[in-house]
Amino acid sequence: MNIVKITNKIALVTVFLLMYWVFIFICSTVFGFKVFRENMTEMFLLSIFGIFSILAGAIVLNIMFNLTAIAEKGGTAEIQSKTHYKIVTSCFLGSLLVIFTLLYTGDFLTSKQKEKYLVSSAADLLEEQSEIISRLSAFSFSREYIQKTSQDIKVLSRVEEKFPRVTVIARDRLDGKPLLLGFSNYSGLGKNEEALKENYILSTSSEERKYLHSVFDGDVTDYHFSSNDGRYEVYYPVTTDNGTVVIHLSQHSRYGKIGS
Description:
single chain, 260 residues, alpha+beta, Beta-Lactamase, 2 domains, five-stranded antiparallel beta sheet, 5 strands, 55% helix, 16% strand, elongated
């Protein structure tokens, strides 16, 4: 094969690879797709460096051997060239759509896998630590409950390494209005610190508040899972003879599952 064609094909392939990789990086960054295990930014920069190195090598070869591609003359050749260009362009745009679909599907499957894992782990954890769960469900806003809950949550967090953040959610009233309170392993009080409900009000979205109030009203008993930009959360209702609380488990994943 003519060395002109070889170097030109190398340059063309590297340009396409560069465009594909930039497209993948932009999609993953803009839409928050969690598909790859590695640090996407570092992997992107190293790959770009490698692609540019190959491209530079192909260009240098062309310059060294003074090789240039000479287009064939004639009307028939021009028509064929235009037809070929349209086909290549259509295939390229179609391939971008396929890549985006694969990225979206990978992110969706990662989210589903996380949901299955978190819910299963939550159920196992609550079953194993039934004594702690029973204490947590006996909610009453008091210094004793806050201190004990803080210690119990610390135990739950250490038992299950995949749940770095565990929050116990209970419903109380303030000035006659219902409100949601959240307790974590950092909720303990200082020696002379006063227990104030205002300090434990849980910040939530309207959708989350609607779900949580439905749980405490007895209308909903199923868990609620959400994922956003690598943050996976599950609200797991727990009802015992002592009362009802919601265990909130969260996990943050910077990367997805594809990669070594």
